[in-house]
Design a protein that fits this description.
single chain, 353 residues, six-stranded parallel beta sheet, 2 domains, Udp-n-acetylmuramoylalanyl-d-glutamate--2,6- Diaminopimelate Ligase, Chain: A, domain 1, Rossmann fold, alpha/beta
Length: 353
Amino acid sequence: MKSLIFLSTEPYSGKTGLAVNMVLELRERGYTVGFFKPVGNLPDRTDSTINDKDALFAKRVLGLKEPAEDICPLLLTSSETKRRLAEGTDGAAAKVKDAYERTLAGKDMLVLEGCGHINDGRLYGASGVEVAQFLDAKAVLVVKLDNPYEIVDDVLVAADRLGDRLAGVVFNWVSAAAQSVLEELVEPYLAKQGIVSFGMIPRDESLLAVSVSHLAKALGGRVLCADEHGRDMVETFMVGAMGQEQALRFFRRKAKKAVITGGDRTDVQLAALETQTTCLVLTGNYMPPATVLAVAESKGVPVVLVDMDTLTAVERTESLIGHMRVHDEDRLRVMRERMDKYLDIDGLCEAAG
């Protein structure tokens, strides 16, 4: 019996959405399928235990009955790594194998999600390649594609290491500019090397977005108005550091945006509110005038006040947008629709055995 493991050469590639939706697809085809993440690197505390965020999300949305520590038996934390560096790493792979067997019991197969990077877990003898080998799993390499020319080496190296365990590649987050290069050059070249492509999923800004509430929490901010719009999604951000006239022309270039500017820049704030703005992030802990709050409230634009400088707020926002995980049912549903539309689902199911 073979399982299917989704691996990648960088985090935030879309593995969780693909793996969880693959479980749902196989279940719809009549199979009893579970989910397993051998090695986790996203610690999250629930009650008195700590487990991996992706595994906990999968357990919830898939209705998994197994304990979280069986679904993800090995969690990479700094304290665990420090301990194993001092004491050795014997037994880690056996721990993964035992949990895999318990999770597999009573099922036709498991769909596995690899850690953030294919190399994660190597210290423990449980990197993506090693897991695929000792669990007898077929691997799908998920490639987050920015520059189509830069990913070929990563794919070839992964193929060399995985050998005949590599079922094929899925290209994710593909920009419109990269599609033609991928179709005309990259996929034909990889095919000549015996590497199958299961398709490419175009970039979708909505899947890269972050909610206003999540952004405010991440920035340690306080929502001053229109907090009922906390679920509205921010797909991009712009920085307001110019005069009002220039700001108005600048802000019209993008919609569904957060505008980050100083709390004392009333002119920039009002200019942003004249365009399609999802929220204002005001830095320096300067309370805006009542006129700004009144306009924002009338337009349903939350104003988030943060106690940090603009540069820091920009850096933190940049680290969020485009790096969101598929940890809610709405994103999962959108990903499923895009898988059905753009990927060779039958080919993936055949790869799963």
